[in-house]
Amino acid sequence: MLRKARMAAGMAWAMVVRVGNMTVKGMDGMWKALIRPHLEYGAEVMNSHQDYLWEDAEKLMRANGRRVLLCGSRVPNEAVMGELGWISMLGRRMLLRLTFWGKILNMSKDRLVRQVYEVGRARLDANQNANTWCNLTRKWIRQLGLEESWNKQAVDAQWREVVQRKIMQTEE
């Protein structure tokens, strides 16, 4: 995924050079449409407790942010991210996974995805240290202070906005 994202970044920036003057908004859109999806592929369902802190992806994102803003490497990472209104790749992965979790909870109980989720949650309840998709999901929900939603196993229609706001608050 990282290799594909780097290739996409190279092609995207070559387009910028050919086009000439491109706005920050245009380059931001290019990052979000052409490069970032490679880094987020499957983020909703991947379950790696070891590498969810993917530093190479974070570095690629910050490097592209510097290109968008046309600033040097001495500008602090926080300034680049804040100026663009971007959240970290970890924050994006959290947002994607927790949004997907909300969708699962709103599925009918006869859907296969919901049934798989219920089995995973039962395994987690039986063994609190189980290395399951549910364990990392619950951990992130707790980190964001949304444990009540986990306990109720229910979310409202504004779940994505709530999660996004909590992630932004955490990163700020």
Characterise the protein shown here.
- The protein is an all-alpha fold.
- The chain has 2 domains: 2-86, no CATH class; 93-171, no CATH class.
- The chain is 70% helix and 0% strand.
- The chain contains 9 helices and no strands.
- α1 runs antiparallel to α2 (24-40) and α3 crosses α4.
- The protein is elongated and about 55 Å long.
- The chain starts with a helix and ends with a helix.
- The mean pLDDT is 90.
Descriptive tags:
elongated; 172 residues; 2 domains; single chain; 70% helix
Q: How many strands appear in the DSSP assignment?
A: 0
Helix content: 55-70%
Poorly predicted regions = none
- Based on secondary structure, the structural category is mainly alpha
- Rg computed from alpha carbons, rounded to a whole number of angstroms: 18 Å
C-alpha end-to-end distance: 27 Å
The main β sheet shows up as: none
Topology pattern, helix = H, strand = E: HHHHHHHHH
Strand content: under 5%
Number of helices: 9
Q: Please state the overall shape, judged from the principal axes of the Cα atoms.
A: elongated
